[in-house]
Write a structure and sequence with these properties.
mainly alpha; 85 residues; elongated; single chain; 3 helices
């Protein structure tokens, strides 16, 4: 963003909009939930399988693969929600 369009936004007086505050708080805490409770707990399933190469059963590898996909999604979505909030 160029200073020409950004600096007037900084110098304007600020007004608190409680609806936007609550919406931002919701987004932030939902992202925090996704990161801490979902993604970090899925890492407990993923890390043992990906840490050591070895002969694993197909179901365990498939489970770890799906858990990894959801872990990556919840990490990025959680961070994005926290930033948006």
């Amino acid at each position: 963003m160029r200073a020409k369009s950004f600096l007037p936004q900084i110098t304007m007086p600020r007004k608190v909009n409680w609806d936007l505050f609550y919406e931002g708080s919701y987004l932030f805490f939902w992202g925090l939930f996704e990161k801490i409770f979902v993604a970090d707990n899925l890492a407990k399933i993923v890390n043992p399988v990906f840490a050591q190469p070895g002969p694993y059963e197909g179901g365990l590898v498939l489970n770890a693969l799906y858990a990894f996909a959801f872990q990556i999604f919840c990490d990025f979505d959680g961070y994005s929600n926290m930033v948006s909030g």
